[in-house]
Structures are given as C-alpha cells and as structure tokens.
Amino acid sequence: MSSQTTTADTAPVPDLTSGSTAGPAFGTAQEGPLITDKRLRLFVYLIMMCAVFMSMMDVQIVSTALPTIVGDFGTLEGFSWITSAYLLTSSAVMPLYGKLGDLFGRKYVLLAVIALFVGGSIACAAATTMETLIAARVLQALGGGGVMVTVFSVNADIFSPRERAKYQSYTSLVLMLAGTTGPTAGGFMTEHFGWRSIFLINVPIGVLVIIGLALLLPYRRPSRVPKIDIAGSITLAATIACLVLWADSPSLFGSITAPESLTVIGIGILCLLLWILAEKRAVEPVIPLSLFQNRTIVLLLIVSMAGGSMGIGLGNYYALYLQSGLGLSPSLAGLFFIPLTAGIAAGSLSAGRLIFRTGHYKYFAVASTSVSALALLALAFFSEVVSLPVIALFMFLQGMGTGIGQQVPILGIQNAAPRKDVGAATGLTTLSRIGAASVAISLYGTLITYVVTMAAGSVPGISNLASLTPEQIAALPETSRHLVNTVYVDALHPVFLVAAGIGICGCIAGLCVQNRRLDSLSN
C-alpha cells in the first residue's frame, strides 16, 4: 500500500494496522516520513539500538575469548579466520541488504537479518571444531551484515541529515555500552562458563528485538518494481572474497606471490570486471556505478576504509596484545576496552553534536584519522614493561579518534547520494568500513603469524607458541613467560605501524573532501 500525500499541517499518525505511513514531503513530494509520531519514532529507535547493541557486542565479546578459543583448538591461523570469516561474509551481503531495503521495504529485511543472526549465534555455541565454528560465524554474519545497514537506512527514512548526526551520536552511547560490556563480559564468561556461553547471550536480546519491531515498526511498500541484481551481488561477493583470501594468502599458501595467491587475485580482478559489466546492464544495480562519479563519496569511502582498518580491524589484536603480550588475564584485559570504548563515545558524542549545530563534517574526518594514527604510532614503540595506565591512555585516544569519525562517512555519503539510492549508498559505506577491516585483520594476522612462527624454538621447552592460551602463558616460569610476552609484543609492533600508515592515508583523503554542509531537510 503506497503512502498517502498530505500537507504538513494535517499529517496523520502512522496507521500501524494497515502498515502504511503518511506525512508531509520528507524526501520527495510523494513520500512522507516513515513515522510521524515522535514518541513512536523514539521508541522504535530505541528498539533498533538494541539490535545494534546485540550485533556490536558480539564483535567485542569474542575479542577477549579468542586467545582461549584458539588455544582450545590449537591453531593460531584460526585466530584471524574466526573474525575474518564473519567480516568477509557480512561485507559481501551488506550492499545486497541495502538494495533489498530500497526495493522491498526495510521492515521485513531487518526482521530477517536479526533472525539469521540469532540462529547463527546458536550454531556458534554448538560448534565442536574450528571449522564448524568458522562455518557458524558465516551463518551468523549473513544476518549481522544486514543489521547496521538496515538500521542506518531506517534512520535515513525517519530523520533529516542534521537530526541523523544527533541521533547517531546517541548511537555511540550504545556502542560504548556494547564495547564496555562485550570484552568484560567475554573475559568473565570465558573464565567461569566457557567460551561457548558468549554466543548464547545474543538469543534473548534478538528475540525481544524481533517481537518489538514486528509490532511497532511501520512497513512502507516501495513504489519501484523489485528487480534483484543477482549477477552484481554474486560477482561483488566473489570480488571481496578473493581480496580477503589474497590478504590471508601467506598463512594459506605461504606467500602473497605464491602461484595459488596470484591465481586468487587474478580471479578477483576478473570478478571485479564482471561486476562492473553487470552493474552497467542491471536495471536496479546492487551498487549504482554513478555513486563512484561523486568525488565526495569516493573520498569519504577512503576515510571509511581507514576508520574500519584502525577501529574494527585492531579490536581482536588489542586482546592478543594485552593477554599474550602484556600477560593480563582475560578479565583484566577486558577492562582495558573501557577506555577504548569511552573514547569512542566521547569522540562520537562531541562530533555528533557539533555536526548537528554547524552542518560541517570535513574536519572531523581529518581529526579522527590523524588522532588514531598518532596513538597507534605511540603503541608501536612500547615494550612489554610499559606502564598499564599509559596503555589505557593511548587506547582512549585511539578510541576517541575512531569515535570522532565514526559517523562522518555515512552522514556525508547519505547526504551526497540520491534519495532513491540511500540504501545502496549506506550499504556501500558500511561495506567499505567492514570490508577494509576484514582485509586488515587478515594482513595483521599474517604479520603476527610470521613473527611468532619465526620465533619458534626461541623459548626453551615450548615448540608451538600458538598453542598456548593466556592461562598457560601465565603458568610458565618467569623467564619463559617473559620471552613469550616479548615475542607477542614484537609481533604486534608492525601491526600498529601498518595501521598508523593506513590512518595517514585516510587523513589525506579527509583533507581533500570539500567542506560542504549537511542539509536541514532530507535530500
């Protein structure tokens, strides 16, 4: 049922029975706001924040459990793949979910992705091997990849660009809560209930969110004829998969120049060319190529990729740094994520309010990437005997840099994209951030695996450093424990340096963005 057209003075409250919404022109003369009642809008927003909390907490809660999971299964290579498999899959499906929301309406897409995420969480808890856990993470990611995309797209339906800056700054509070609760709860639950329990926490939250959105979120049937770009979706997913596999090729094939690695990247280039051809011919391309003709969008995508590589890509490796490098317990390491996420919240809240007041966002992109890069450069030169409060301070600064720029790319790109392609543009933005994080995680894992492997035999009595859990490292004699800690700290230093270099590239892109203002009304 299509939306009615009314004047602003007579806009009715959404009709939840029929599923239609009516209201004044919000983006075009034919469409009104998805929800006109302010109280209902706020309540729906809060329910969606529960979905965001669930998906973000899952990423964070796994981080402090990963060293124990890897030690349990006895393979360091699986460390990166537990996360990479999730990010790879979620990256591949993000543009598809954005487009599906544009074509079919966002309500049922959001309900479907949450249900998939909950089912995947149950499968993760039931995994018995590293392979089954990775497969379960893929299933979980099929849902998780659509949560943020669809939620941000719904925000674009109910809030103007300026309002989005304010409400997305409130989202940072949810991210802070998830970031604080996740690692701390992950460490506590891993120690007391086993690592499988960290996945089951998603189930009750997901069920309540599904019920709330099913009852309260209005459904708007798009006027466009649904035509799914199957060829574009498949070739894009294959391109991303090849890129991540190539980044992880040193651990898979021994070198990025090995014949298998070159074959993977060659297939990836072919898939990229086929994707471009598919998008040119598609009636409703999963990602319209016209988006890449906009200079602002391209530059903000680079900023988004830099932010994802530093903010998301390093999350799990902080846990490895704190536990295997500095010798902290999972619970204590989880506490160090509090200053990190507090920095994210502080940066996002302050930036969101300033963007809401001024409408400008360029300099926040520059500040975010530069602050994060400087903090990572400092971490790259610390030894294993560095003061813990100093580590906490620089994790706070890195978090603040991440928080400042957390919403800049999506706000700027949604503002620059045509309204009919807001969902696809949102999916592309989230893809750039998560996809870059996925590639970065593989690169970081390759660097760490190389250093740890080269150090094999350097610790007397230990032939496989990768098989040691944090508890086993803590139980070693002092001399051996110090040697193991040194190996892991040395392995993390090049990771921080590479991440800082990526941040500098993002800073340069931010400087090149035109200093435009966000509209006070929907575009």
From TrEMBL:
<protein>
    <submittedName>
        <fullName>Drug resistance transporter, EmrB/QacA subfamily</fullName>
    </submittedName>
</protein>
<keyword id="KW-1133">Transmembrane helix</keyword>
<dbReference type="GO" id="GO:0022857">
    <property type="term" value="F:transmembrane transporter activity"/>
</dbReference>
<dbReference type="GO" id="GO:0005886">
    <property type="term" value="C:plasma membrane"/>
</dbReference>
<feature type="transmembrane region" description="Helical">
    <location>
        <begin position="297"/>
        <end position="320"/>
    </location>
</feature>
<feature type="transmembrane region" description="Helical">
    <location>
        <begin position="228"/>
        <end position="247"/>
    </location>
</feature>
<feature type="transmembrane region" description="Helical">
    <location>
        <begin position="363"/>
        <end position="382"/>
    </location>
</feature>
<feature type="transmembrane region" description="Helical">
    <location>
        <begin position="42"/>
        <end position="66"/>
    </location>
</feature>
<feature type="transmembrane region" description="Helical">
    <location>
        <begin position="491"/>
        <end position="513"/>
    </location>
</feature>
<feature type="domain" description="Major facilitator superfamily (MFS) profile">
    <location>
        <begin position="44"/>
        <end position="518"/>
    </location>
</feature>
<feature type="transmembrane region" description="Helical">
    <location>
        <begin position="332"/>
        <end position="356"/>
    </location>
</feature>
<feature type="transmembrane region" description="Helical">
    <location>
        <begin position="434"/>
        <end position="456"/>
    </location>
</feature>
<keyword id="KW-0812">Transmembrane</keyword>
<dbReference type="InterPro" id="IPR036259">
    <property type="entry name" value="MFS_trans_sf"/>
</dbReference>
<feature type="transmembrane region" description="Helical">
    <location>
        <begin position="388"/>
        <end position="413"/>
    </location>
</feature>
<feature type="transmembrane region" description="Helical">
    <location>
        <begin position="195"/>
        <end position="216"/>
    </location>
</feature>
<feature type="transmembrane region" description="Helical">
    <location>
        <begin position="109"/>
        <end position="128"/>
    </location>
</feature>
<feature type="transmembrane region" description="Helical">
    <location>
        <begin position="134"/>
        <end position="158"/>
    </location>
</feature>
<feature type="transmembrane region" description="Helical">
    <location>
        <begin position="253"/>
        <end position="277"/>
    </location>
</feature>
<dbReference type="Pfam" id="PF07690">
    <property type="entry name" value="MFS_1"/>
</dbReference>
<dbReference type="InterPro" id="IPR020846">
    <property type="entry name" value="MFS_dom"/>
</dbReference>
<keyword id="KW-0472">Membrane</keyword>
<dbReference type="InterPro" id="IPR011701">
    <property type="entry name" value="MFS"/>
</dbReference>
<feature type="transmembrane region" description="Helical">
    <location>
        <begin position="78"/>
        <end position="97"/>
    </location>
</feature>
<feature type="transmembrane region" description="Helical">
    <location>
        <begin position="170"/>
        <end position="189"/>
    </location>
</feature>
